[in-house]
Amino acid sequence: MDDQDLFERLGGESGVQAAVVLFYDKVMVDADLAPFFAGYDLKDQVVRHIAFMTKAFGGEAAVTENLAPAHQKLVHRGMGDRHIDRFIVHMRKVLEELDVDARDIEIVAARLEAARGKVLGRT
């Protein structure tokens, strides 16, 4: 089972787009997470996240941004482990709502977890 297979099982480009849009719907009503996006262009954020998720799950996407510098301002504003935990919870819920197989949800959660150190500037 390779990344391309995972990307296709997640619904390909349209599946990843749907997941990211639903994800941000949840994030923006989460009192712990929404403040981090104040002052950001949410449409641009969604586009960036779609590209990141597409590449992370085996699709073709031009992603050049490094996770640590991309999140540095958020970390300086207080983003930490509990926020990453919330992000992962929301993504799990979204994938469940989209009827993604439980094994694939675990793979996605593990990949998000693996990015934690980079996002928080630890690695």
List its traits:
single chain, about 120 residues, mainly alpha, Globin-like, 7 helices, about 65% helix, globular
CATH architecture assignment name? Orthogonal Bundle
Could you tell me the CATH topology label.
Answer: Globin-like
Which parts are unreliable, with pLDDT below 50 for 5 consecutive residues or more? Answer: none
Number of domains: 1
* Oligomeric category: single chain
- Beta-strand fraction estimate: under 5%
Backbone shape: globular
In CATH terms, the superfamily is Globins
Tell me, rounded to a whole number, the average pLDDT. Answer: 90
Provide the succession of SSEs: HHHHHHH
**Distance N to C terminus:** 27 Å
Question: How many DSSP helices?
Answer: 7
Computed CA radius of gyration, to the nearest angstrom: 14 Å
What is the total tally of β strands? Answer: 0
Mind describing the biggest β-sheet? none
Describe it.
The chain is mostly helical. It has one domain: Globin-like (Orthogonal Bundle), CATH 1.10.490. Helix content is 67%, strand content 0%. The chain is built from seven helices and no strands. The longest helix has 17 residues. It is globular, with a radius of gyration of 14 Å. It starts with a helix and ends with a helix. The model has no long low-confidence stretch (mean pLDDT 90).
Helices and strands in order:
Blueprint: H1 3-9, H2 12-27, H3 42-56, H4 67-76, H5 81-97, H6 102-114, H7 116-119
Describe, in short, the structure shown.
This protein has 7 helices and no strands.
